[in-house]
TrEMBL record:
GO cellular component term of the entry, any: membrane
Taxonomic path: Eukaryota, Viridiplantae, Streptophyta, Embryophyta, Tracheophyta
The protein's name in its UniProt record: Uncharacterized protein
Family stated for the protein in its record: Belongs to the MIP/aquaporin (TC 1.A.8) family.
Name of a matching Pfam family: MIP
Membrane-crossing residue ranges in chain numbering: 30-51, 58-79, 113-134
Amino acid sequence: MAHPLAQKYSLAGCVINDAVSNSGVGQGTALVVEFTSAFLVLFTAVTVAFDRVRAKEIGLAGVAALIATAYALASFVGITVTGRAGYGGAGLNPARCMAAAVVYGGPLWDGLWVFWVGPMLACFVYWAFSLTFAQERMVVTKEVEEPCV
């Protein structure tokens, strides 16, 4: 595959603006999409995987399928809602976008903060939102107070 094609299709989810065709979305729009997508995946994963009743009802395969569906839906919506050429949708993985910026550099550094701030905000909002949940059904790990030998 030619280098321009490889670069164009290997960075899906980590490109906000296409510098060549000057198309894409603004950093504010990308932040909203990244936040919404990360919150959707986080909400689905944590509330289903750590809820004893739901996890037992649907089983491990069901939990994994539900989380994968949320991830796919977040990716699909992130791309189609904006409908702009040059925008690859939500990255949903800041480390992958960081690696792309290190390897390719250039304009990927300009919007890199979006892929870090969006998921962090989603985590903070989910944490604040989870304070209102009933906690008795959630799986909580207890720390062992025995010294390690």
